[in-house]
């Protein structure tokens, strides 16, 4: 049992923003960094969905001091960032790269000097290419490689980083790689691989959590999960069955290992219904039990609005839009399908804009699992046109995030165990599917002119919101 006191007891509410290594760092072949799977994949013209890559991205690698200044001047006291496994271990395993480690020393120290609490994710999609060559997440032995990598990170940064996550969105990561086919290795409707990846991801995550706890470091560790709220449409014939099925398919393979230290009890029944199976390790019960996390990092963008399966084959709806894609909607044979709710507004990429789900997601996790939660992503993507000086008046972002924050405040007042909230993203960066067109940042990055940073209207609005919240509570 992890006996170290919770770091949350010593922390104020965390108001911050989030970034991820591949999406903002650039410097893809500098400082001894090895090749990541995304570096490789984006260099293949016919695989690259948006025609751009992240070799330079927002150039956080060279400009992080300026970015951290803007985060601090924006009144934020937290930053969620990820480490690049390929920057730390260029070969995926073996010798660590001192230049990569010292880059992250500087970033972490830079955060602490500015009173920004770093929340560090070990891996946000950018798997080292040498590990992908060995089958990546399809190969159960990745858990050992991930554990070795995690130990190096804990040994180096564990004295200063108090909030850790193992993986970003293992569900969505696997979904995009194995069902929607938009992340490498671009398989479509492959339910076996979708679940096998999740099993291996959570085994790897459990391994890292167990190592962290053995080291008795003064912090907390968990996983980042996404979009956990499931709502069954009125008129559904078998609402309870549909709910259980959608919950299994989207949440339970992640949340049970992460928060209960076990696989979902309904696993075998669901595998049989799906007509598939998993390769499992003999000591899985011990491995998952030792890997129970301390808290949950949750990304909240949308709910899953589901109904009865209507005989469609397993599929994800992916539509190409100029230099990118929309990907809302799915069918999972023979379990359930998603529906478009015409009463809810949708964004340019077909995603629901429904702020009340912030409250509802938090209360749902509180009732079902009870763990402390940090909201590690919430945000609004849009196509933006700056004025002549480069300033963006992103009133739509302010309005939508403002409504999500109101919903968050309701959950806090009702006793949700939420400890922080981060906007995706601190600055404009690379979108996996939509390149540089879809913007989320509080700070504009001018990708055409020397990557100049200009805070948007939402940056100042968020700063003022944070200071009002501090005064109120
Ligand atoms: C989250 C990911 O799922 O969504 C981020 O953790 C991602 O990495 C963000 O960028 C927004 O996704 P998109 O596809 O709209 O850019």
UniProtKB/TrEMBL annotation:
Pfam (any one): Glyco_hydro_1
Keyword set, alphabetical order: Glycosidase, Hydrolase
Cellular-component GO terms for this entry: cytosol
Database matches in InterPro entries: GH, GH_1_N_CS, Glyco_hydro_1
Gene Ontology MF terms in the entry: beta-glucosidase activity
UniProt-listed GO biological process terms: carbohydrate catabolic process
Family of this protein: Belongs to the glycosyl hydrolase 1 family.
Protein name: 6-phospho-beta-galactosidase
Natural source organism: Tractidigestivibacter scatoligenes
Taxonomy of the source species: Bacteria, Bacillati, Actinomycetota, Coriobacteriia, Coriobacteriales
């Amino acid at each position: 049992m992890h006996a170290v006191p919770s770091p949350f007891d010593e922390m104020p509410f965390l108001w911050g923003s989030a970034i991820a290594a591949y999406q903002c760092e650039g410097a893809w072949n500098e400082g001894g960094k090895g090749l990541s799977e995304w570096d490789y994949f984006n260099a293949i013209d016919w695989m690259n969905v948006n025609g751009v890559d992240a070799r330079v991205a927002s150039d956080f690698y060279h400009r992080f001091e300026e970015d951290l200044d803007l985060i601090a001047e924006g009144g934020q006291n937290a930053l969620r960032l990820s480490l690049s496994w390929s920057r730390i271990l260029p070969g995926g395993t073996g010798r660590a790269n001192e230049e990569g480690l010292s880059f992250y020393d500087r970033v972490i120290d830079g955060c602490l000097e500015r009173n920004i609490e770093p929340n560090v994710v070990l891996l946000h999609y950018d798997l080292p290419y040498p590990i992908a060559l060995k089958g990546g997440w399809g190969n159960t032995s990745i858990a050992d490689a991930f554990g070795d990598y995690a130990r190096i990170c804990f040994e180096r940064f564990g004295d200063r980083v108090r909030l850790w996550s193992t993986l970003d969105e293992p569900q969505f990561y696997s979904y995009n790689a194995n069902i929607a086919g938009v992340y490498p290795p671009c398989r479509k409707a492959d339910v076996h691989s979708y679940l096998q990846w999740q099993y291996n991801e959570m085994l790897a995550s459990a391994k890292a959590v167990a190592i962290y706890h053995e080291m008795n470091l003064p912090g907390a560790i968990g996983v980042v999960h996404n979009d956990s709220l499931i709502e069954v449409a009125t008129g559904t014939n078998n609402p309870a069955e549909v709910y259980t099925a959608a919950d299994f398919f989207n949440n339970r393979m992640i949340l049970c290992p992460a928060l209960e230290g076990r696989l979902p009890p309904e696993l075998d029944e669901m595998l049989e219904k799906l007509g598939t199976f998993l390769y499992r390790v003999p000591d899985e019960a011990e491995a998952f039990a030792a890997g129970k996390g301390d808290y949950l990092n949750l990304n909240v963008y949308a709910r899953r609005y589901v109904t009865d399966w209507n005989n469609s084959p397993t599929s994800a709806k992916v539509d190409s839009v100029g230099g990118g894609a929309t990907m809302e909607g799915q069918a999972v044979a023979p379990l359930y399908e998603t529906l478009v709710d015409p009463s809810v507004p949708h964004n340019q990429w077909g995603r629901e804009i429904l702020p009340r789900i912030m409250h509802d997601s938090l209360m749902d996790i509180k009732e079902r699992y009870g763990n402390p939660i940090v909201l590690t992503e919430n945000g609004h993507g849009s196509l933006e046109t700056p004025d002549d000086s480069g300033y963006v008046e992103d009133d739509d972002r302010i309005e939508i995030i403002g409504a999500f924050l109101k919903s968050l405040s309701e959950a806090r007042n009702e006793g949700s165990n939420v400890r922080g909230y981060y906007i995706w993203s601190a600055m404009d960066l690379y979108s996996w599917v939509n390149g540089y067109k879809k913007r989320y940042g509080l700070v504009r990055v001018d990708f055409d002119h020397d990557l100049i940073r200009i805070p948007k209207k939402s940056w100042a609005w968020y700063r003022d919101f944070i200071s009002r919240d501090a005064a109120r509570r």
